[in-house]
Fold this protein.
Amino acid sequence: MTGKTEDTVELGEMENSLGLLLRLAQVKNFNAFYEFMNNGLSPGELTVLWVVGLNPGMRQGTIARRLLIKAAHMTKLVNRLVRNGLLERLDTPEDRRSVFLTLTKDGRAIVNRHKRQLAKLHQTERAALSASEYRQFISLLKKYTGSGNTQ
Amino acid sequence: MTGKTEDTVELGEMENSLGLLLRLAQVKNFNAFYEFMNNGLSPGELTVLWVVGLNPGMRQGTIARRLLIKAAHMTKLVNRLVRNGLLERLDTPEDRRSVFLTLTKDGRAIVNRHKRQLAKLHQTERAALSASEYRQFISLLKKYTGSGNTQ
DNA sequence: TATTGTTATACTCTATAACTATA
DNA sequence: TATAGTTATAGAGTATAACAATA
């Protein structure tokens, strides 16, 4: 199978570059996502729906900060999901600057469907790794990102 | 939930989602990149320059496939780098459809400067991890992405 | 004055498809 | 016919700044 139709690309130190590897990993992960999750939703949209489902009535800014989504983009993303009937903005007397979010019935249905597909996706995602390697991979990612922190 | 715990976002199973963690990691990594690499170049541009430097005269399509850059985007990226005087297209008699790439003098200077800053960046990137954790992190990323393969 | 969210602009990257010029 | 690259279009995500309403 070593047909040498494709040249071997020398990467040097870049082969151990965290930045490049994270990008390659994300592309691979995106492909797996779109293969298993044909909801017509992007990973970002689905994540926001999921988080609103677990935190009904939470301010959109709080969610955006946790997911490292910029405020301007969060507005567009929420607009899209509201337009598609998956998300609702709640007007609140508590703080009338804020926007509080909740899922619609359709939104909850999408999240539940996603939940059932999540297992299949995870199974595919870790095909290249053993169970313990996968656990460690997740653990290191959490440590690197400082996940668990509020911000 | 009576007493709203301030700003604590519940993620549920999403807390162990490879996709979300990869995104959070990439944002963190991008921030580190822009903090240490003030070349006016994006990570993608610098990576292409680096790879061309290590593989002078290679076809741009070959490099694009290895870095998972789509052909259409690669064209724009190369145009930008050529316009900025960092990259040169070589016309070749061998296959006149192909575009072969090489660095200009300025391009080589940028890559060398980047090389010296890479150590500092890597030091920052692994601040949250021990040396052995960092090594394992890289190793797992390579395994997950199938890095080492040509494609 | 500071904060929450919105609007506007611009740029990077992705995804497709149609196109050219070679092979 | 197939391949290498280009062009065009659309959309997602990011970054920044200016802005309105509210606190």
Notes: Chain B touches chain A through 60 residues (CB under 8 Å). The radius of gyration of chain B is 19 Å. The first strand of chain B starts at residue 58 and ends at 59. Residues 42, 44-45, 69-70, 72-73, 76-77, 95-98 of chain B lie near DNA strand C (CB under 10 Å from a C1').
